[in-house]
Design goal:
Helix content is about 40%, strand content about 0%. The longest helix is centred in the N-terminal third of the chain and has 14 residues. By secondary structure, the chain is an all-alpha fold. It has a domain of about 35 residues. The protein contains three helices and no strands. Helix 1 packs across helix 2.
Length: about 90
């Protein structure tokens, strides 16, 4: 990775377990440890701060739409909702 502007160093203290995890990720992806840490920091600071814990969609977003019921109009046809919620 190249930088157009000035760069600076940042020193952080992490557990040996976290360091090992970062180094393993770097080894598996072929990236530098610095690149892994920069990516994690960028994701962290870009994420908007929520007032509480993450929503269900945020926690399970990768699961949304991963099942096919075989019924094309499941969400729009009232007959599929008969007896639901009673």
């Amino acid at each position: 990775m190249s930088y157009l502007g000035a760069v600076t160093n940042l020193t952080v203290k992490i557990s040996p377990e976290l360091k090992a995890s970062v180094e393993e990720r770097a080894r598996l992806t072929g990236q530098s440890v610095s690149a892994i840490v920069r990516e994690a920091l960028q994701k962290s600071v870009r994420r908007p701060k929520s007032a509480g814990s993450p929503s269900l969609l945020e926690r399970a977003g990768d699961l949304c739409g991963c099942f096919d019921s075989g019924i094309a109009d499941l969400a729009s046809n009232p007959s599929h909702l008969e007896g639901f919620g009673k």
